[in-house]
Amino acid sequence: MNPPADCAEKEDSFLIMSDSSKQNSRESSPPEMKKKPDMYGELIIQERVDKHYEAGVGAMSQSQFDKAVSCFSKAMLLQPQQTRFYVQRAEAYLQLCDFQSAALDYKHACSLQPQTEAYPQRLAFIYYLQGQCLFDLGNFLEALETFTKAAELKPYVRPYYMRSLACLNALGRYSECLGLVSNWLEKDGQSADLLILRARLHHQLNQMTLCYHDLISALRLKPCCPVAHAMLKKQKEAAEDAHQAAVNKALKGELSEALRKINNALGYNPTKGQYYLFRGILYRRLQDFTAAIEDFVLAADFCGVGEEPPQKHMQDNSEDLEQDAQTQLVLTINDFAIQCLSRGLPSEAVMLLNKAIEKQRDASELFINRGDSFFKLCEWTFALADYQQAEEMDPDNTAIWLRLAVFHNTMGLHSYGDKKYQEAADKFSVAIRYNPCVIQYYENRAKAYCKVAKMEEAKKDAISVLILEPTNDQVAPLLLSLLPGCSLTDIMSCATARSVKTHLEAKIQAFKIAASKVSRTGRMALTKDDSQSQKSSQKLQVEDGPEQKIKSCATPVEVHCKLVKRKELNQAVKRALQERQPLLYDGPRLASNHPVHEEPSAGQQPYVWRKFGGFGLNC
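Now predict its structure.
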């Protein structure tokens, strides 16, 4: 800033007078002074510097900051290495809101005296003020650069970083904000305020799961934080809305869209066990069994997590949820095993069913399916053991009878091929006992009886084949050879044939009644055997040896709701224990004569096992 004109004239006249006075003084000065002219000049400069500096200080005290800047600048021209002149002029510039000039003067002061800590601190503050003004004007990028300079000078002053964070947020650079806050948390340790700040940034970036975890961590450090509670409440409400939308989509059959909705729900609330259970069921219906198994495990792990306060009904719901998750896990493993078996991977199916049986040892269907897998592997001993175990657990299940019939018929074929004819006949008899409706079993046994010279038994079996299938052209020659001289009409009208027919019809009728009882109770829907597949897979070829190719197919089957009944029983026992009368009760303890039967709720549907269909059996 230029000084006024009158001041310049005065200074020029003052300089002229000083030059003349200097000349007079040199003429009249003693010899000592004539020898040291430089010392005299330094005194004059120092005098002028002091005068300008005092004038600048006086102007500062009178708020004449422009004049103060001029005075300090004149003093600085005479003695440019004086740090105090830069400091004073910087303060004058600061009062004039000339932050750029003030910052330059303090930078010069820092270079002159780098050991002084006050100058970098003051410079950082100037950058902070300049950045704040730029931020207020909306120049966020320039403000960010200025705040960054302040933070570099004083890296331990958090407000400078916070203002940089505000600039990044205003610029929409949320990822950089997130990295900055994460660095603070790593260096300085966790604090509730920083965690809430990072949760907001995660919310801006649509990272809802990370937002949820940060809010939970903030509440652990500061349980009464209202901001964290409000944000967490909104998260849970959004999660429940997404869950309800997923349920609606699933009811409409839009499984992929339902999966997307439940994923959103889990993003908002990743510790809700019910959501994992629902998603696992969706994965199971979409036949993504690996993902379904993982979700059911997570559902069991998250039972009761995050529920506050832990009231009694919440504990009951957690127990029910855990039971449902375990049940669905077993069903999914079973379905996975069926898929492996249908794709020709019986060994993998056995491994999966082993895990299912470890978790659910009272489900006969699992033993049936594992027996089918062992059968495919030709592990006859293990297959028979599983079928027998299933029969012991569920003796009225006709699906087990059908499999045992097929198994013993197959073993009879092997024995016949090994020329163990009596052993083969015994195995065919067991097959007939389990399933008296299959023609091939009688035909096979008739041929085995012929080999051991039991002609009467062979004759009855041949007659049974013709009773069940009058057009069978394989047994007619055998029967005519057993009764030479008789026609088929005579044979089928004799007393022996009538007795065989009566006995055979009684056995078949008893078998059908048993099967129909099972069907009416909803345990299993049985269909008639495929006689063509039976013929192609189980027919005994005497000339070529036993046929060992057994066709298998995997079909879903409706089975009984055993697991639901067991769950209802457990709830009934729990209810009885909770509602029992005290031991000191003196009143009557007689129960009502009419027991009350509770109807199952509408929401409880029977579980559906997927079942391996056996070997040529549509059951």
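The two ends are 104 Å apart (CA to CA).
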